[in-house]
Queue: 3 jobs
Job 1
Amino acid sequence: GIDRQASRRLINDEFKIPPQSFLVGMAANMRPVKGADLLLTALKLLPAHVHVLLIGEVRDPRLKVIAQNPLIKDRVHFAGYRTDAKVLIGGLDVNCAPSRGREGLTKSILEGMGQGVPSIVSEAGGLPELVDDGVNGIVVRTDDAEKLYDAIIDLSTKGKLLTSIGNEGISILNSRFNLDDTIQETLLLYRKYKMHNLNIADKVNIR
C-alpha cells in the first residue's frame, strides 16, 4: 500500500505547504461541472491553515482567476495532470468531489477510500452510492459552497471523526466494492439472464 505520511511529505515539499496545514483536495479534469470553484469559494471562509490541492487539468478558466484572490492565493495549489495522482490523493486530509453534474462511481473517491482518506461529495449522480453520510464521509447538497465549508470545518476540527471516517472508508470499500464479489454477482446475473431467455425461447418453440 501507499505510505500516506510519505505522500504528504512529498506534497508539502513540492508545493511548499506548511507541515501542520489541513489539506483538502480533489482529482478531476477541472471542468465547470466538477465544482472545483465551489471548493475555492469555501476556502475563502476557511481558516488560514486550510490549503487546497487541485489534481488534474484545469479546463475551467475561472479557477485561476478565483485563486488570485488575496485571501487564498497562497493556499491554492495546482498540480496539473499527474501520473502519480493516486499517491497525491493518499497525502490529503480530505478528498472532495463537489460535482454539480452526473457522476458515476468516481475513481478518485474510490482511490481515496482505499487509503483511508475521508470523502466529502455532493449529491450528484452516483456519488452518494459511494459515501454513507457521516459514516465514511460527508454528503453535501449539490452546488452549495456553504455546506461544503461546514463539512470541511467539521472534519478539520474533529480528529477522532476524521480517523473513524477514514477507517470506515477502507472497510466499506473492501466489502461493498470487493472485486471478487463483483465478479461473482455479475456471473450470477448473467446466468439468471441466460436462463430467463432460454425459458422464453422454450415457450416460443412450444407455440
Job 2
Amino acid sequence: RRQEDDPDRANEYLQVGYELFENTDPAAADSEVFAVMSECVAHLGLRAATGDIGILTAAVQGLDTTEARRAALMRHIWRPRRFRALLDRYAGRVPTPPARATLLAAEDPLAEDAPMIGLRRPSEIAARLDVLRADAAAPPISATEVDLIEALLDIKETLPFATTRLRDLVVDMPAIASAVEGLARRTDAMDARGLEVDTLSYEASFGRTSMEYYDGFVFGFYAPDRADLPAVASGGRYDALTRLLGQGDEIPAVGGVIRPDLILTLEGEA
C-alpha cells in the first residue's frame, strides 16, 4: 500500500481473503461471509462491529436538494469531517466564507487586472464560477432533514435495537426503507446461522474512514485490549466496485479478509 503519513503503519502485509459472488440472496451471502470470518477468529475473544454504508447513501440520495449537492455529499461520505462541513454549509448553518462571498459578488471576476496562474483556462474558471453561483442560489437543506441525518449517524446499538430505531426513522426518511429492510433480512439470516445477533453491535458510522469501496454491509473484528491494532478481520459488500472501475455492469459481491500476523500476535500474548 502507498503509505507516507504513518511510519508505524505497514506498507505490505499478508492477508487471507474469502469472497462470495452471488446475486440471488444478498442477505444470505452477507451472513455467510460474516459467519466464516467470525468462526476463524472466535478463539481470540474479539469485539465485532457491523454497519451498513447503503443506509447512509440511501439517506443522502433522498435529500431534497440539488443533484450537485447530493453528489458532493456522496463523494465525502468516507470523510466524516468534510461531510459534516458540507452538510452544515448546505443547510445554511455556517456563513459563506468571505473570500467566496467576494468572488460571487463580483460582476466579472475574470475582468480583474491580474495574471493568469495555474493550469485552468479562463473557460474552466468561468464554468466553476457558474457552479458556485448555482449552489449559492439553491435553497438550504431543511433543518428537519439535517436532524434526521444526524439521528441516523448517532445510532450505535445492538442489531435488534438499531433496526427498531432505523424503522422509526423510515417514517420521515422513506428513502432508506429498502436498505433498512435489507438489514433486517441480513439479521434474520445471521440468526438462522446461529450467530448471536442480540448482542452484535451495529454502528451507523462504522467503516466511514477505512472502507471506501464498500457500498452496503460492513464489519470488523477488533482486539478489545489492543486499541493500537487495526481490525484483525474485516470486510463487507462491494456491489458497485466493478462498475466504478469501468469493468461493465455491477457484479454483486461480498467478502472479507483476515490478518494472520495479527492473529499470531494476539495468540502470542494469550
Job 3
Amino acid sequence: MRGLVYVYLLTYLGAALSLFYPLIGLFIYIHHALLKPESLWYWSVGARGPGRYSFIVGIGMLVGWGIRGFGDWRLGRSSIVVGMLLAFVTWVGVGYFFAQEPILVKNFLISLLKIALPFLVGITLMEKREHVRWLAWVIVASQGYLALDFNRSYYQGVNRIVLEAYGGFDNNCIAAAMVVGALLAFFLGLAENRWPLKLIAFAVSALMVHTIMFSFSRGGLLGLIAGGIAAFILIPKSFKTTVISILAVLLALRLAGPEVRQRFMTTFVDPEQRDRSARSRVEQWTACLRSIRENPFLGVGANHWPLRSQQMGLPRMHAHSLWLETAAETGVPGLLLLGGFYGLTVYRLRKLVKECHNLDVWSLYMARGVIASLVGFAVAVSFISVVWLEIPYYTVLLGAALLRVHTREWEDRLEPDTVDLREHANEYASV
C-alpha cells in the first residue's frame, strides 16, 4: 500500500509542479521509467492495471517546457550528441515508408519518442552543475532501489529477474542496465565529498554488481569487466583511489559464486560444446550479417527483426546484439547514427577531461563515470538485444549535460602551465 501512495503522490504532485518547474517533472519521469512501479509493486500499483503514471508526469513536463519557451537551445559542445539522436529518430521515421509492416515501425517510433522528448527537455533546461548532480542521483538512486529489491527477493529464495520478465525486460536486459548503474554509482561515490553520500553510492554500486552476478548473464558480466577496465584506466592514480579500486575488484570476485563463474566460462568453449543459448546467438548474428548485405541502406525496418528472423527459417526472436539488430533493421546509416550518439558522447567527454584543466573535481569524476558506463554498456549489448532500455539514454543525457554546462570552461580553458596545481591538489585530497 505504501508503494501505491508513493506513486500517486509523486505522480500527481509532480505533474502539478512540472507546470512551473519542468525539471522536477523530468526527474520524476526518469525515476518512473527506471523503477517501473507497476512491476516493482505489482500487488498494489500493478494490480490496478496500467496507471499511465509516466504519461501523466510527461504531459505536465512538456507543458511546463512549452511555457518556458522550450528551453535554451544553445547547447554548446553537446550539440552533436543531440543532433545524432534527432537524426536517428528521423531515419527510423523514413523507414516507415519502406517497411513491410509500417505499424511495427510506428510502434518503435512512439516508444523512441518517449525517451527522446524527455532527453530534449533535459538538455535544454539543465544549465547548472547542480542540475547535473540531481540527475546523477536520480539515476543512481532509482536503479539502486531496484537492485536492493532484487537482492532482497534473491535472499528470500526467489530470483525475480531470472524467473520473470521485469517490466518487459529479461535477465540479460536487466544485467545491462545494472552494468551502467553500477559503474555510474561507483564514480558518483568517488565524486562526492561527504562520506555518507560516498558510502550510499558505493553500497548501491555493490548491490548492482551482485544483481549482475545472479542474473547469470554472460553479456552482463563481459560488460562489467570491460567497464571496470575502462574505469581503472580513467581513474586518477592515487593511494586512495587505487585502494578503492582494488577493494571493488575483490568484492566483485567475492560476489561471483561458483555457478556464475561456471556459466561465464562457457562463453569461451568450443563451438561444438556451446549451449542452446550460445548457438542461437551465432545463428542470429549470421542471419543479421546476411540481411545487412542484402539491405545495407534502409534495412528491413525498425522493430522488424523478429519477423525477418522467422522469414529466414529461424525462431521469431531478437538478434541477441543491439548493434547487429540495429544495422539489420535500420541499415548501416542507422547503426552509424545510434553508434555516433553513444560514441561521440564518450569522445567529447574524454576530450573535456583531458583539455579542460579548470574543471571541478565532481564533474571530472562524473565525466569519467559516464565514459566507463557507456563502454560497459556497449560491450554488454553486443551480446544482448535491448530494445527499450532507458538508462543508457539518460546516462548520455548526463554526459551531454556536463558538456553543455562546461562549454564555457572548455572554451576558456587554462593552459597547463597556468593552472594552480596547489588548488587542484587540495580538491583531490578532499575526495
